[in-house]
Amino acid sequence: MRRSDDAPKRATNLSLNAKVLDAARELGMNLSQTVDELLAAEVQRRYWQRWNEDNREAIEAYNIRIERDGLPLAKYRSFAQGK
Question: Is 4 helix (H, G, I), strand (E, B) or coil?
Fold first, then answer.
């Protein structure tokens, strides 16, 4: 997923729970920053959730192949030989 840290901001309207909004303002929270960070995290979570669902068959086939045949370069993995 592409990073969007440097993307321009765009004004939008939101409908939020009035009590939560009042409490957030009372606590001096930056609403735009908080919503932006939480939304970015949720977008990333859903992106990877969808990616995993879309690629489930390929991942399962790969795991079956590795379980059956082992890793192609396993003999060169000195850190995994119990030293």
Answer: coil
Q: Tens digit of pLDDT for each residue in 49-63?
A: 999 999 999 999 999
For every residue of 23-58, DSSP letters joined together read HHHHTT--HHHHHHHHHHHHHHHHHHHHHHHHTHHH
The pLDDT value given to residue 72: 85
Q: Are 38 and 31 in contact (CB under 8 A)?
A: no
Amino acid identity for residue 62 in this structure: Y
Q: What is the pTM of this model?
A: 0.71
Classify the C-alpha dihedral 58-52-67-80 as positive or negative.
Answer: positive
